[in-house]
Amino acid sequence: MPIPPPTRNGSIAAAAPQSLGRRTDAMLRGLLHMVGLFHLLMAVSIALRMGMALDLVVPLVGGLHALLCLLCLLLQRAGRPLRAAILFVVGQMLLLTVAYAYWGLAAQLRLQLVLLLPVMLVAAVLGRRPLWWVTSGVCVLIVVGAWVDASSLMFRPDRLLLAVNDLAICMFATLMAAWLLHHSVTGLRESLQVAREHSRDLARKRDELQLEIQEKERSRDQLVHAMKMENVGRLASGIAHDFNHLLALIQSYIAKARRSQAGDLQVALQGADAAVRRATAVSRRLLDFSRLEHSRPQLLDVAATITAMAPTLQQVFDARVQCEVDSGQVQCLIHFDPAQLESILLSLAVNAHQAMPDGGQFSLAVVQPSRIDEVVIQVSDSGHGMSEEVRARCLEPFFTTKPVGQGTGLGLAVTASLVEAAGGHIQVESGKDRGTRVSIRLPTRPLAAVPA
């Protein structure tokens, strides 16, 4: 790439960098080879053609041109391309001074392009000021050569007019070449500067984008962490609420045992034992949801299981709620984990109780539809029900409408997950002030399939 033009107060070497750029260095190297080889070949050709009448200045000037190019190549190979370019310009101007002053302008016309273009091109690469200094020097040499031509012809009017014509043409050609070189190199410099500025802008924008991406990733990680902590808090508070309910249930059984006779004492203790098993099932609910613990399904008599749950479910509600449990005397088996089924029914009963703060009716029924390979466990209440928006999201994990600390949003989500794992599905029907009905459909097996 070309070097920038020198400053006003500094020299060319001080203002310019030590490298002209990879492509410019390669161009200068090729130009030195071509110029040096051209002058050697021209000197040999003229010597062979002129023979004994050869002017010794011809091979001398040709040799000096070749030596100058060799020295510049050595400087460039030594890692000093700027000094090589300056030496080439200065040496070429000195040799051109000798040629124009010795042979005149007319003798240089055929080779003027080869003589002047290399030095002007290298000067243009060095900068605007070196180019115009070289152009001014070439114009002076052209005038000197024209003067030599006119004086050698004794200033004859016809020859003087020819010398003036050559002078005008050469001056115009030199100035036009300098003008074209100046604007071409200047345009290349400006394009290079624009490209560099664009590259810096792109690099800066890339760095800004990377910082923005890092900041967004940091914010996202913080948001995910905050959501995790919120869910963990809701989960912990909800589980604590479930355990408090189970502990209250156990206390109710203990109070009943204290007030009961010997026969009822056994029933109360059995209820307390069942409540403890429910508490264990609550802790397993998290493991079931995260699949950290495998379920232990077995063949269950659905009617007998529901009937055995009746006393526990009745303890969930107070006297204002009418609790009905109807097994329907269904004769079929389901393949399900008993602890999980008890936890599901207890969770649905607790939800129903919270939906009926002023009392109401709760029913648990087992129905076998026309399909003999399916049984439906229906849990319904007459509570305040759910809106359509809430009903559509009620099976989502961590979705709850309960106050903070009174629900995890996992009850129905875990229920749906466990039912689907058993090959069934769950359906929720509800409406505002119309109560809620949850239907759990499970595949069945014939009663005869019970192992002996």
Report the count of strand segments.
Answer: 7
Mean pLDDT: 79
Q: How would you classify the helix and strand content by structural class?
A: alpha+beta
Radius of gyration: 52 Å
The strands making up the biggest β-sheet line up spatially as 2-4-5-7-6
| Helix-strand sequence | HHHHHHHHEHEEHEEHHEE
Q: Give the percentage of residues in beta strands.
A: 5-15%
- N-end to C-end Cα span: 95 Å
Low-confidence stretches: 1-17, 289-293
* Largest sheet entry: 5 strands, mixed
Describe the structure.
The protein has 452 residues and is α+β, with helices and mostly antiparallel strands. The chain contains twelve helices and seven strands. The strands form two sheets. The protein has a five-stranded mixed beta sheet, covered by helices on one side. Strands 1-3 form a two-stranded antiparallel ribbon. Helix 2 packs antiparallel against helix 3, helix 3 runs antiparallel to helix 4 and helix 8 packs across helix 12. It is rod-shaped, with a radius of gyration of 52 Å. Residues 1-17 and 289-293 have low confidence and may be disordered.
